[in-house]
Specification:
This protein is mainly α. The chain has eleven helices and no strands. Helix 2 crosses helix 3.
Length: 185
């Protein structure tokens, strides 16, 4: 591919990149991944609350999306379709990690009162408080708030990603925001 074509690809819209990627153009795939990677990771992180699991979920989301690219019908935007796959990947990883979670009793027995006291002295930053409050919301509310506030999605897009109606997405968002206000005041 000539260098001027590769440089021009980042300005191309997702629909054209998807068509090019389906035709086997690797550069188009690379642009799609780089364009949406941060957003996919961010959604996964907000669903899971764990950076390492979020990286895994983002990777799984892209692998799943690229394998299913031929099935993308274009009824929603590529971004919405991809974020739906990311949410599903994060939920799958969350279910797996819950099943695999182990409590190491020896480590708990070795904790001292000093460790507990030292942990209590450090006050969380405002961002940490918001993240903790967001993590405490029910999943549907957390997802609606995350997608609306951090990704700027419309309720219709949130509904597609969350697998519910736009009205349900709106209700979950407003209930989540109300609960966040209660938790943070």
């Amino acid at each position: 591919m000539p260098p001027d074509t590769a440089a021009a690809l980042p300005a191309v819209d997702d629909a054209l990149l998807v068509a090019r990627a389906r035709a086997g153009e690797r550069q188009a795939l690379a642009v799609l991944v780089s364009r949406h990677l941060d957003e996919v990771y961010d959604v996964a992180l907000r669903v899971l609350g764990d950076e390492e699991l979020a990286r895994d979920a983002a990777q799984d989301a892209f692998v799943n999306a690229l394998r299913a690219l031929h099935r993308f019908r274009g009824e929603a935007s590529f971004r919405t379709w991809l974020l739906r796959i990311a949410v599903n990947a994060a939920r799958t990883l969350a279910r797996r990690s819950i099943r695999r979670r182990e409590v190491v009793l020896d480590a708990a027995a070795n904790m001292t009162a000093e460790t507990d006291l030292a942990a209590g002295i450090v006050l969380p930053s405002q961002a940490a408080r918001v993240a903790a409050a967001l993590a405490s919301l029910p999943e549907k509310q957390r997802l609606a708030v995350t997608l609306r506030v951090y990704q700027g999605l419309a309720y219709e897009e949130i509904g597609v990603i969350a697998g519910c109606s736009a009205g349900a997405a709106r209700v979950n968002y407003h209930l989540g925001i109300k609960r966040l206000r209660e938790l943070l005041t």
